[in-house]
Write a structure and sequence with these properties.
alpha+beta, 835 residues, seven-stranded mixed β-sheet, four-stranded parallel β-sheet, 27 helices, 37% helix
Length: 835
């Protein structure tokens, strides 16, 4: 046994020692080539923005992935566990304004600082494949992808109503507007502007993105539901009403064509192209419609389109319903939006709440054309009927059910040439233009002769100037840099100007995980052969806040690459895990709230292992964690117990390991300890298989340590054979290795373990030893605990009931009472219901 003086746990001495060793051996965490015979496992945490420092929220995310990666290494997998930096973005420009530091310098300084923190935490990353998205060797491929999408019509430019953040001084994608405000500035209302912008045609994949969600059972249902709702598929029909005077077609979209005989008006969005024709030479009408446009603008900017007070004006004109030739008035309504559907609707107040409210307000006819099945008429106190039913007042279609009528009416519209079945989506194309400096330059030039001209591949990358003046003026800062702006046309060689918008930073993060597999490739974004081996990602880990923004973009990007012949997978990741937030002082831990806890402080006081292990122990990883420093101190004390226990028997265990194995059948204390050990192995192995109950996993290790500590006399006296002591100590160290890698490496060396513990085989549970001979079962009477009985672990329910009823305490409780029901939860509980 070791001298007690040697048993003090000092992470400040142990952890830097192993950090230095691992840094000197970069191959330790490197993945083997894609032709490895080992099964592959690609585990990935979402890459961070290099803000300058990690906080405990980062530590929790990365500790989950690191524990899984270490476990899979020990299971014999070829593991890819990389890390990089989402390094473009507005904060670097804001820092340049505030600190007079060029964005590139600020970003690279932050990357270096955060990388040091990650290494000090002992995170097992393959730094040889590190990716930094603001460097030309990465963003040249953003430009290359842009050109491939442009060739296929997936990248295009158009004049459009866009979201403008006055604080970011740039356009935002629809997905970056949250409750009417900028996703970066939660209190800043987003404005609407008309600008010429670049878009990616993500809508070309809308149906496939929707269908693909069914192939992702390993993703949280919450994330899949959020994406389904965002894509927003609606099945219906488009039908042409005809303006009576001009003959202009007014195409409406409806999901309820079965109600078309109940249409008593047609309503147009204020910005519909037909409105100026209908309101020509009517100044009062024009003023009313202009006011509606202003109302819509305010409603958009406050994300209150649903709550807008419904207002409309009658144009004095009529349209013809193609099904019954009925004249219906044409209105302009402020709640009809040009960007949804066709910008025109048929209003059916008898069967839609919104239409009913509008009709009542303006005295428009309310007509029923659907009745509930089995009833002559709808209940008289119901102002409108919004469900399916049977058609009435619908001419030759009377008596059809809504479902049959929808199909029949669509076919009739198509046959007669005034309509067709139509599917629409809420999803809109991804606006990727940003009027900022610190982003990927868009590889297009504007030529006076040839218009828009793509930059040839052999002229990539279009380099971002490293030193420019950052100001708060409107428009892209690049437009004020002549050496960047002025160029020559690749087609004619004449003078031209570069596109000065840069790409949305979500472009960078949409495909970065493919670059990890081949990060030094200068000839192509990555090797398709390597992608065939590594993809899809086996486990992706990150916050649910990226359910729409990052995750839907990355799914789109994967499909584009598939159609380019670069990959064969449809989805980027098989499994997705969304960890809970870290809460401090009642709020999510973040710099903006001023409640950030630095891992450096925790490491200085308690060590990296204790900091990481507490982040996994304090709550299930999918739940929010309320950060308590006392908890880190408690985990540190536990690790100190492990250190003292293993060091106390390290010499004896090493000697026994090198001797002949024992052939004795375990019994007594030895059997109890080995049984507990094998039960713990089984539980942790099961947890790593997908449950990820790391809090109970670590609790199980603590229980094992408690039992080993309680058996100290038996361990020290020789009552437990030396070979069993060696097995117990080695297994304990292997079990904590994914969670406390520094301590595990130190103790593995003390025990004479061969090579790096990262490559040591994960222990295997022996089912015959893990099986319990006896279990303790609580017995309740009317739901209150009255006794504990011990029975064989495989006791059948009938025998379990008999044993409970024979217990002396239960007999006493049942005196004068009658058992009316016995409820048994096998191996867990017996509840006697008595009167």
């Amino acid at each position: 046994m070791a001298d007690e003086k040697e048993l003090r746990y000092d992470p400040a001495a142990i952890e830097p020692k192993w950090q230095a060793r691992w840094a000197a051996n970069p191959a330790l965490y490197a993945a083997e080539p894609a032709n490895s015979a080992k099964p592959k496992y690609y585990v990935l945490e979402m890459l961070p923005y290099p803000s300058g420092a990690l906080h405990i929220g980062h530590v929790r995310n990365y500790s989950i992935g690191d524990a899984l990666a270490r476990y899979m290494w020990m299971q014999g997998y070829n593991v890819l566990h990389p890390m990089g930096w989402d390094a473009f973005g507005l904060p670097a420009e804001n820092a340049a304004l505030k600190n007079n530091t060029p964005p590139r310098q600020w970003t690279l300084q932050n990357i270096a600082a955060m990388k040091r923190q990650m290494q000090r935490l002992g995170l097992g990353y393959d730094w040889a494949n590190e990716v930094t998205t603001c460097l030309p060797d990465y963003y040249r491929w953003n430009q290359w992808f842009f050109l491939r999408m442009y060739e296929r019509g997936l990248a295009y430019r158009k004049q459009s109503k866009v979201n403008w953040c006055s604080l970011c001084q740039t356009v935002l994608a629809n997905e970056q507007v949250v409750d009417g405000c900028c996703w970066r500035h939660e209190d800043n209302i987003v404005e609407q502007r008309n600008l010429e912008q670049w878009f990616y045609r993500i809508t070309a994949y809308a149906q496939e993105l929707l269908d693909g969600l069914d192939s992702l059972p390993g993703w949280p249902e919450k994330v899949r539901t959020m994406q389904r709702n965002w894509i927003g598929r609606s099945e219906g029909a488009e039908v042409d009403f005809t303006a009576e005077d001009s003959g202009e077609k007014i195409r409406v979209f409806t999901t309820r064509i079965d109600t078309i005989f109940g249409a008593t008006s047609v309503q147009l969005a204020p910005e519909h192209s037909l409105v100026p024709i209908l309101t020509a030479n009517d100044a009062e009408l024009e003023r009313s419609i202009s006011a509606m446009i202003d109302q819509q603008k305010v409603a958009r900017e406050t994300d209150n389109l649903g709550g807008i007070e419904k207002q409309g004006v009658f144009t004095g004109k009529y349209a013809i319903n193609p099904f019954n030739q009925e004249r219906v008035p044409i209105w302009v309504a402020n709640y009809v939006l040009m960007e949804y559907g066709t910008g025109a609707i048929m209003s059916v107040p008898g069967h839609d709440e919104r239409d009913y409210e509008f009709a009542v307000k303006y005295g428009i006819e309310v007509r029923r054309v659907i009745e509930p099945v089995g009833e002559v008429e709808a209940p008289p106190d119901e102002p409108y009927y919004g469900e399916d039913g049977v058609l009435v007042n619908s001419g030759e279609y009377d008596g059809l059910t809504s479902e049959v009528a929808r199909k029949t009416l669509q076919e009739a519209a198509s046959r007669e040439g005034f309509g067709q079945a139509k599917v629409t989506f809420r999803l809109r194309d991804w606006g990727v233009s940003r009027q900022r400096y610190w982003g990927t330059p868009i590889p297009m030039v504007n030529c006076p002769t040839h218009g828009l001209v793509p930059v040839p591949d052999d002229q990539l990358p279009v380099l971002l100037p490293e030193q420019i003046e950052i100001t708060q003026e409107g428009g892209s800062p690049l437009s004020r840099v002549p050496e960047f702006l002025n160029t020559t046309c690749p087609k004619c060689g004449g003078p031209a100007t570069r596109e000065t918008d840069t790409m949305d930073t979500f472009v960078d993060s949409s495909w970065y995980f493919y670059r990890y597999i081949d990060a030094k490739n200068s000839a192509e974004p990555f090797s398709s052969a390597a992608a065939q081996y590594w993809f899809p990602i086996d486990q992706y880990i990150g916050g649910v806040e990226h359910a729409i923004l990052h995750l839907i973009y990355s799914r789109f990007w994967t499909r584009v690459m598939r159609d380019l012949g670069m990959v064969t997978n449809d989805e980027p990741a098989t499994r997705l895990f969304t960890q809970g937030m870290v809460i401090k002082d009642g709020a999510k831990m973040s710099k903006s709230r001023g409640n950030v806890v630095s891992p450096d402080d925790m490491i200085a006081r308690y060590g990296a292992d204790a900091t990481r292990m507490y982040a996994l122990f304090a709550a299930p990883p999918d739940r929010d964690l309320d950060w308590q420093e006392d908890g880190v101190a408690g985990v540190s004390r536990f690790l100190s117990r492990v250190f003292r226990l293993v060091r106390r028997y390290a010499v004896a265990a090493k000697t026994a390991k090198n001797g002949a194995p024992s052939t004795d059948v375990p019994s007594g204390v030895t059997l109890l300890l080995l049984r507990k050990m094998h039960q713990t192995i089984a539980k942790i192995t099961l947890d790593f298989s997908g449950r990820w109950h790391f809090n109970t996993t670590i609790a199980a290790i603590m229980e094992l340590v408690n039992e080993l500590t309680a058996a100290d006399t038996a361990l020290a006296s020789g009552e437990v054979p030396a070979s069993a002591v060696a097995e117990l100590m080695r297994t304990l160290v292997l079990l904590i290795a994914p969670f406390a890698p520094f301590l595990a490496a130190e103790l593995w060396e003390e025990l004479g373990g061969e090579g790096e513990i990262l490559r040591a085989p994960w222990p295997v549970s022996d089912p015959s030893l893990a099986k319990e001979d006896e279990i303790e079962v609580p017995v309740q009477v009317n739901g209150k605990l009255r006794a504990l009985i011990r029975v064989a672990a495989d006791t059948e329910n009938e025998a379990l009931e008999a044993t409970a009823l024979a217990d002396e305490k239960i007999i006493e409780w049942l005196a004068g009472k009658r058992v009316v029901k016995v409820i048994i939860v096998p191996r867990k509980l017996v509840n006697l219901v008595v009167k």
